[in-house]
Amino acid sequence: MGASLSYPEVDLAGKVAIVTGGNTGIGYETGKALARMGARVILACRSEERATEAIAKMRSELAEAKPVSGEDISVEFMALDLSSLASARDFAKAYLARRLPLHLLILNAGIAMINPLQLTDDGLEKQFQVNYLGHLLIVLLLLELLSANGPDVRVVSVSSSGHQFANFDLTNINGSKSYSRVTFYGNSKLYQIMMTYYLQKRLLNSEMCFSSVHPGVVKTEIARGHEDSIILTAFSKISNGIGAARSPEKGAATTINAAVNPAFANKKALYFEDCKPVAPRRAARNEIHHEELWAYSIKLLRKYIDDDCAAKLTDMGLTISPSAASLDQQDD
Ligand SMILES: NC(=O)c1ccc[n+]([C@@H]2O[C@H](COP(=O)([O-])OP(=O)(O)OC[C@H]3O[C@@H](n4cnc5c(N)ncnc54)[C@H](OP(=O)(O)O)[C@@H]3O)[C@@H](O)[C@H]2O)c1
Fold first, then answer.
1. Domain boundaries, the chain
2. Does the beta carbon of 156 lie inside 6 Å of ligand 1?
3. Is 173 within 8 Å of 226 (Cβ atoms)?
4. What pLDDT score was predicted for residue 332?
5. Cα separation of 17 and 72, whole Å?
6. C-beta of 5 in contact with ligand 1 (< 6 A)
7. What is the block-wise mean pLDDT of the chain (332 residues), using blocks of 10 residues?
8. Which of 68, 221, 249, 272 has the fewest CB atoms below 10 angstroms from its CB?
9. Which residue is closest in CA terms to ligand 1's atom 37?
């Protein structure tokens, strides 16, 4: 028997949502549903062309929809390439410059099981940066805004049950010692869940709710570029053949439920599968690893966070090291 995948219809008029990677797959269906419920939706994507096509497709698919029809949905594109930390910072800055509120931040964009090992222009393993680190930078730069938009503000990370294949090892972040596409994908998904717990625990007086989800096995474009992969091709054939893979619409249900279900308002640090809160693997709850991951991540991100923002994050309960510039001043 299949899982029951549903979410309540809620009125999102007046709410603003960002969906990263909202031009296709799970992100597309998430953005479409939020827009249909009345939210103003920003699709944060790397291709304006693909995002514009997606918005046109949403309008056409929602032509007769209620409460908001395709003609009336509010969906727009903003540029974001998560494989560049500068792009992630510029996206957040551009968003802040628009002086819009923000109520829902859906960290959905992702890549899976990249092979062979690829490094970004920032010199980091690509899955680590796209799935985890770039998203963390966006959260940190938008945190003050999110905290000002309570009481029901939610940040949802689209992780994966693939975090069970992770092997937490901060000494091999770039695969210089060894590389396995499955382990590195699992690591990036584990780190997403860990940050959910860490931020929720550290942020003082916060009404924001951080959660993470596994969407199920979903028939999307996630395996593109892996046509040569025996594992993925076999997996895809088997799951599609026996109907185990979900449609993107069903795959988005768990994200949407975590984002809008009033039953989860003020329920913090949940991890969802099949639209229900469940426990992730124990590795995700290792608090020593949370601290280590935070320290490691913030070192990589510090130069993208200006001192004013860092001071605000510190006031909110996060430990941010001084910037090189402020250390120089202290030395004087
Ligand atoms: N499908 C599954 O079975 C499954 C299972 C577990 C978890 N997930 C997770 O679900 C999330 C959505 O995946 P999906 O299955 O919907 O895959 P998808 O159809 O491939 O969609 C992925 C989205 O991420 C975007 N993206 C990729 N690299 C990016 C970058 N550097 N910067 C900005 N955006 C980028 C893609 O943009 P482009 O269109 O421009 O490439 C696309 O919009 C991912 O985080 C994935 O790990 C999926």
1. 16-331
2. no
3. no
4. 46
5. 16
6. no
7. 86 98 98 98 98 98 96 98 98 98 98 94 98 98 96 97 96 97 97 97 91 96 72 56 80 98 96 97 97 97 97 95 63 46
8. 221
9. 21
**Dist. CA 102 → ligand 1 center (Å):** 22
What type of residue sits at position 311? A
Give me the pLDDT at residue 205, please: 77
Give yes or no: 185 in active site: yes
**Biggest distance spanned by C-alpha atoms of the chain:** 69
Give the residue whose CA is nearest to atom 6 of ligand 1.
160
CATH for 16-331, options being 3.40.50.720, 3.40.30.10, 3.30.1780.10, 3.60.21.10: 3.40.50.720
**206 near 305, Cβ under 8 Å?**
no
Q: Output the pLDDT for position 223.
A: 80
Q: Give the model's pLDDT for residue 79.
A: 98
How far apart are the CA of 126 and the centre of ligand 1, in A? 13
Query: Rounded to the nearest whole angstrom, what is the distance from the C-alpha of residue 130 to the centroid of ligand 1?
Result: 10
- Out of 7, 28, 185, 304, the active site residue is 185
